[in-house]
Amino acid sequence: MNKTPSQRLQELGLVLPPAPPPAGLYKPVLVLDGFLYVSGQGPMQNDGTYIVGKVGDTMNLGEAKLAAEQVGLTMLSTIQTHFGNINQIKRLVKTLGMVNSTPDFDQHPLVINGFSELMADIFGNDLGVGVRSAVGMTLPGKIPVEIEAMFQLH
Fold first, then answer.
1. Contacts for 140 with CB less than 8 Å, ≥ 6 apart
2. What is the sign of the dihedral through the CA atoms of 41, 100, 106 and 58?
3. Pick from 96, 112, 104: nearest CA to 144
4. How far is CA 44 from CA 13, 63, 67, 81, 112, in A?
5. How far is CA 81 from CA 32, 38, 78, 139, in A?
6. φ, ψ (nearest 5 deg) of residue 102
7. What are the pLDDT tens digits along the chain (154 aa)?
8. Which positions ≥6 away from 134 have C-beta within 8 Å?
């Protein structure tokens, strides 16, 4: 892929929402030994509100996947706000995707694909795909998806 992540964002016509303020005592991002760690992010919308819902109840798989994609945009906004230019990112290393779902919902990996597909679109099919976990749980603020990630820097 010959285009920078910033160029890909623009080419795809994607708009980053505002970076959310920390919801507790933690760093939104931390750089250590050439890696960028990003704290858990929720699906912030462009108006500054979060997407809410419970997958398998008030939200279906398709809506949840779109929420996971929105988490990716939120994460990129957080990176730009608290770290700097996303072009400094070499690759995605690890993703932990958490889905707020009913006990009988079992398609958590398909939800988190919304985030993973966005990262592949922005960083490329090799560098935008890393190791990943996708689990179900109850999340704060009734958000449907929370994702934390680790990136390697140039």
1. 23, 146
2. negative
3. 112
4. 17, 14, 9, 14, 16
5. 18, 12, 5, 24
6. -70, 160
7. 589 999 999 999 999 999 999 889 999 999 999 999 999 999 999 999 999 999 999 999 999 999 999 999 999 999 999 999 999 999 999 999 999 999 999 999 999 999 999 999 999 999 999 999 999 999 999 999 999 999 999 9
8. 97, 98, 99, 108, 109, 111, 112
